[in-house]
């Protein structure tokens, strides 16, 4: 077998102070406010520029596609160094803030639904949701008492399936693409047919994909399936720690450049 039952301290649960039906709606409203302020700053910036810059900006808004194929720079000049494309940067920042607000609202909704579920509320400590470079990462971490997969297999336990069904429904509400990752601890998988922890981690990620789709997630939103084995340990100090065994679901930013 590739895994044991070590005791470990699992990630802290963040309990929100806002309950009921409010959820994370205020964050969306805040993002709208920031968007309006950004638009105001752009207008004020334009008013302070010369005629050529103003005409370039006007041309961009009249025909963004045509403008981008002719001139990607708003500011004129042939000097050395990078030129400022203020519109592209502002639009990207606005989209980033808008997506983060939606991710936070979805996170609050997931936590609220799990908390109200008598069968799953006790597993909240094993769900870690945070913003990372690629987007919103939702991790399902095993513990010494509760495991999501049958030992040494890619077979999901009923509790894990219920969580993934709920996640599939929630994530489908967003247009973003997904990455699903599988991770194991460092115990070697003893097999006579060259089946290793890499195959096991990939198969577990694929098992999670199937349940997410059953929960309502569109297959077209699955961008990648990754099997990392023990190459991305969560607890590097203890390669055999139970919390290294996990499934990660990353809701990707759509604004990030390829």
The CATH class of the largest domain is identified as Alpha Beta
Rounded average pLDDT: 80
| Percent of residues in helices | 40-55%
pLDDT under 50 segments (min length 5)? 77-84
Question: What tags apply to this protein structure?
Answer:
2 domains; alpha+beta; 12% strand; 258 residues; five-stranded mixed sheet; 60s Ribosomal Protein L30, Chain: A
What does this entry look like structurally?
With 258 residues, this protein is an alpha+beta fold. It has two domains: 58 residues, no CATH class; 153 residues, OmpA-like domain (60s Ribosomal Protein L30, Chain: A). The chain has six helices and five strands. A five-stranded mixed beta sheet has the order 1-2-5-3-4. Helix 2 packs across helix 3, helix 4 packs antiparallel against helix 5 and helix 5 crosses helix 6. It is elongated, with a radius of gyration of 23 Å. About 3% of the residues have low confidence.
Topology:
Blueprint: H1 25-47, H2 51-62, H3 64-70, H4 86-115, E1 127-131, E2 135-141, H5 158-171, E3 178-183, H6 197-214, E4 222-227, E5 246-252
Parallel strand pairs: 3-4
Antiparallel strand pairs: 1-2, 2-5, 3-5
Helix pairs in contact: 1-4, 2-3, 4-5, 5-6
Entry summary:
With 258 residues, the chain is of the alpha+beta class. The protein has helices at 25-47, 51-62, 64-70, 86-115, 158-171, 197-214, and strands at residues 127-131, 135-141, 178-183, 222-227, 246-252. The protein folds into 2 domains: 28-77 and 87-94, no CATH class; 100-252, 60s Ribosomal Protein L30, Chain: A (2-Layer Sandwich), CATH 3.30.1330.60.
